[in-house]
Amino acid sequence: MARIAVIGAGMGAMAAAARLAVAGHRVAVYERTDTYGGALRRFERDGFAFDTGPGLLPLPAVHRDLFVKTGKEPLEDRVELVQVDPSARHVFADGTEVSLPNVSRAGVVAALDEALGAGAGQRWGDFLVRAREAWDRARRPLLEEPLWPNWQVLAEREPYPAVPHKRLLRTRRAGTLAEVGAWELRDPRLAALLESHALAYGLDPRTAPASAAVLPYLDHAFGTWYVRGGLRELARAVYERCLARRVEFTFGAEVGGIVDKDGRAAGVELADGTVAEAEFVVAGVPPRMLDGMVRGTALRGAGEVPPQPGAPSRLTVLLALRGGRPEGTAHRTVVHTEERAAELDALFGAVPGLPERPTVSVSRPGDPALVPDPEHEAVTLTATVPASASADLRAQADRMIAVASRAIPGLRDRLLWHEVRTPADIARVTGAEGGAVPAPALAADRGRLLHPANTTGLAGLFTVGGWSHPGGGLPHAGMSGALVAGLIVEGPEFRGSQ
């Protein structure tokens, strides 16, 4: 039984802690803030409640597996999972609208044909078949296994298949997600639907590899889920599972350094000078914070995947509305920008800035736990913004409200008050520089979107969470916890769940 120190109480770190405790280890978690959950926070005011991080749960099998492997009570006994249907409503630049049924290929095809014209559904359905092929090729190395030592294979090999081209009498392979949309979907609205999945993760579809096609495929194949009471309830359930497995938590405990004894991690030193000895250390913090904790040891070699630089952030606007949520309202609506090129140029240009007309995701859960009574509604708006963005964020929030009015008639008349959560708020909670939000790992593109391995150059030190393999997002963070636990329990020969 080893002593294990975990730095941070984010979702990936807690997943690792619970799994390691079940394996018989003594696990202590040190969290610099006053609570658990990482980005999964909650804001409450006047009887309204809002998730300030992710609002929906993709690929719930990851967290179901966590609860199966760490106790007798399944996930559904700890939280109420609700499948969101429709999975999303989309309001396009030309005013066209479509609501996509959850986990129904035939339903999605029919809805797209009706809204966008005959043939649109078939083109999207054919795209999903190819996206599944990419998922089948990339799923194990990019989600279920530790990062390959020969990761260059993933960097060089595009899993998204080439497509026959009738005029050229040969196949043509898209290099970017935008090319997939232009060449295969052949409708600006379908292209916007595709690209919105990349943009939501802070990726520029013009440069993101075609392998990013797996992002919409995940929603289509495994469904979109909501946790009753908000995603903060999922964080609570994981925290309580850790407590049940006798994981110890210390909040307000900032780690200042990692103890290095004879070239091996031997514990952590807190900011107050206290030293907690351990045989293993698991760090669930951003790369820059971790680098500041290690003295004299290079954590990544020249031939290894480096940390991802330059990830964007999110701006979140919380709306308290008078008047109840109308019957039949979609849980999630994506209001697409009317100026695609201008939005992408602003966000991903040489000097990133704020677009005048952003794409906005509108979350309307219809959850009684989030409102003071049925005559009010809690709505959350999110948009991608550059990390460290600070200028004119209040004005940008007003622009987001104006965009959301395309999806919610009479929005400004119903508005009681609103709160804004900025990249600086994300930075305070997660420690990420500029409030950056990591994207999931993706293949191809010379490895630009891979994340560093969970092992490091300091023996006994492992990394977990969105800034490590397999990257950002709730399912990926949960899988990073499983991978780190496997590497510690089974050793370097661990090759992922079978």
Provide a descriptive summary of the structure in words:
By secondary structure, the chain is α+β, with helices and mostly antiparallel strands. It has 3 domains: about 5-40 and about 60-80 and about 230-310 and about 440-490, FAD/NAD(P)-binding domain; about 100-220, no CATH class; about 310-435, Alpha-Beta Plaits (2-Layer Sandwich). Helices cover about 35% and strands about 20% of the residues. It has a 7-stranded mixed sheet with strand order 8-7-18-19-20-17-21, sandwiched between helices. β13 (about 255-260) and β14 form a beta hairpin. α1 packs parallel to α10 and α5 crosses α9. The longest helix is centred in the first third of the chain and has 25 residues, at about 120-145. The chain is globular.
What is the count of DSSP helices, taking H or I runs of 4+ residues?
Answer: 16
Shape field: globular
CATH architectural group of the largest domain = 3-Layer(bba) Sandwich
- Tell me the helix content: 25-40%
CATH fold category name of the largest domain: FAD/NAD(P)-binding domain
Oligomer: single chain
Ends apart, CA distance between termini: 24 Å
Please, what is the CATH homologous superfamily of the largest domain?
A: FAD/NAD(P)-binding domain
Classify the beta-strand content into a percent band. 15-25%
What is the number of independent domains? 3
- Structural category: alpha+beta
> Unreliable stretches, pLDDT < 50, 5 or more residues?
none
Overall pLDDT level? 96
For the biggest β-sheet, the strand order reads 8-7-18-19-20-17-21
Largest sheet: 7 strands, mixed
- What is the tally of beta strands? 22
**Cα-based radius of gyration, to the nearest Å:** 22 Å
Q: For the record, what CATH class of the largest domain applies?
A: Alpha Beta
